[in-house]
Design a protein that fits this description.
Distance between the termini: 68 Å
Oligomer: single chain
Structural class: mainly beta
Low-confidence stretches: 1-11, 17-26
Length: 295
């Protein structure tokens, strides 16, 4: 199979401010926005229209036909760590002339990957349906993950904000509160799924899934940060390697939050002493703090 055709060399994060820009002040802080790209409802549809997955087939040094899958995306690289969890425990039982089962005394042994419980049948051509040992869904003709949401990538961006100020009515304002209502959009979304090998073998591409832009609105912010916000889930809008038919299905979304940083190199709030603001919005000028007298 050819290499996946990426829609750009990196991800693009857009920040849309839907509220009025706060008044400019000399003192600044930074609201750092971090997010994850997530997937759910993972299913393997292969074989589909006669097209199979042939990523972990004999003869091989690995535990065919099952293997873990990782994700290359606009927000991350393939990792052996719950990026695209499956369903199988990683045990395969096959005839083996070099192995004698101690219980049956036959040349038939089982091999299990320690700690595995999240693998996929990655050789549907030689281990086809219907078979409930190799498939667990749709009358043992497809595969479905038994796990929930997986995170397959991370991203971040930042936005300059005013330093938090204390008001005489006992409230704080400024900081990340300045970006309340901001919409975070992640574009050029794709997931290239790989059956993982290594460290001395290359990963095997299964298929690439493309998704529409995903947006999340930071609706709940205070001066110190913004609560978790998530986009709606999206279905794939296109495939590659092969373009058709779909061999894998999953939904994709983003989740994002924000945190305030006030000290260098993110801001200079700690270098000023600021008076109390009145409820009407007037704030007395901040005075630089003298660290090394004389000033």
């Amino acid at each position: 199979m050819s290499a996946p055709r990426f829609l750009g060399s990196c991800f693009l994060v857009c920040l849309l401010i839907l509220v009025a820009t706060p008044p400019a002040r000399a003192q600044t802080a930074t609201c750092v926005i971090t997010g994850t790209t997530d997937n759910q409802n993972r299913r393997v549809l292969a074989p589909n229209q006669g097209i199979h997955i042939n990523a972990e087939c004999p003869p091989t040094a690995h535990s065919w036909p099952f293997g873990r899958w990782g994700v290359s995306s606009n927000a991350g690289t393939p990792q052996d760590g719950d990026q695209f969890d499956g369903w199988h425990n990683g045990c395969t039982c096959n005839p083996d002339p070099n192995c004698i089962d101690p219980e049956t005394n036959l040349n038939f042994c089982c091999y299990c990957t320690p700690g595995a419980g999240d693998q996929w049948n990655s050789c549907t051509s030689e281990y086809p349906p219907p078979n409930c040992g190799w498939f667990n869904y749709a009358a043992c003709t497809q595969q479905a993950s038994i796990y929930g949401i997986n995170t397959h990538g991370v991203f971040s961006t930042w936005y300059p904000v005013t330093c938090p100020r204390y008001y005489s009515d006992g409230t704080w304002h400024g900081g990340c509160e300045d970006i309340t209502g901001a919409t975070i959009t992640l574009s050029q979304n794709f997931m290239s799924l790989y059956e993982l090998d290594g460290p001395f073998d290359s990963h095997d591409l299964v298929q690439t899934l493309y998704f529409p832009n995903r947006s999340a609105t930071l609706a709940s912010c205070d001066p110190w940060g913004c609560a978790l916000a998530a986009s709606p889930w999206a279905d794939p809008i296109a495939y590659d390697d092969p373009v058709s038919p779909p061999l894998v299905y999953a939904q994709m979304a983003i989740a994002t939050r924000a945190e305030l940083f006030t000290s260098a190199p993110y801001g200079d709030c700690d270098q000023y002493a600021c008076g109390i603001c009145d409820p009407g919005g007037y704030c007395p000028p901040c005075v630089p703090i003298c660290f090394i007298p004389p000033c």
